Amino acid sequence: EFLEFGLLGFWSLEAFILPTAYFPSWVMRNYLIIPFQATFLILEMEYRLLYDLTFNYRMKSC
Questions:
Q1: How far is CA 53 from its chain centroid?
Q2: 62 residues of the chain, pLDDT tens digit each
Q3: Domain extent at residue 27
Q4: Long-range contacts made by residues 10-13, C-beta under 8 angstroms, separation at least 24?
Q5: Backbone angles phi, psi at 46, to 5 degrees
Q6: What are phi and psi of 23, to 5 degrees?
Q7: CA distance readout (Å), 34 to 5, 52, 60
Q8: Tally of structural domains, the chain
Q9: Alpha-carbon distance 1 to 48, whole Å?
């Protein structure tokens, strides 16, 4: 849980802070933030799926 939060927090911060320094808001909103959010949503889903699979496997092997 902590690792997941740390990674997502770091990347989302980076995705929001860096573009605001260099791009006008409409560019940032249309071309940067939406792809970033979609990418990390997918990564988070995959991470949760892997975590569930390994957890279930460990529970069965006991």
A1: 19
A2: 444 545 555 555 555 555 555 555 656 566 666 677 777 777 777 888 888 877 777 777 66
A3: 2-61
A4: 11/36, 11/40, 12/36, 12/37, 12/40
A5: -65, -40
A6: -125, 150
A7: 19, 27, 39
A8: 1
A9: 10
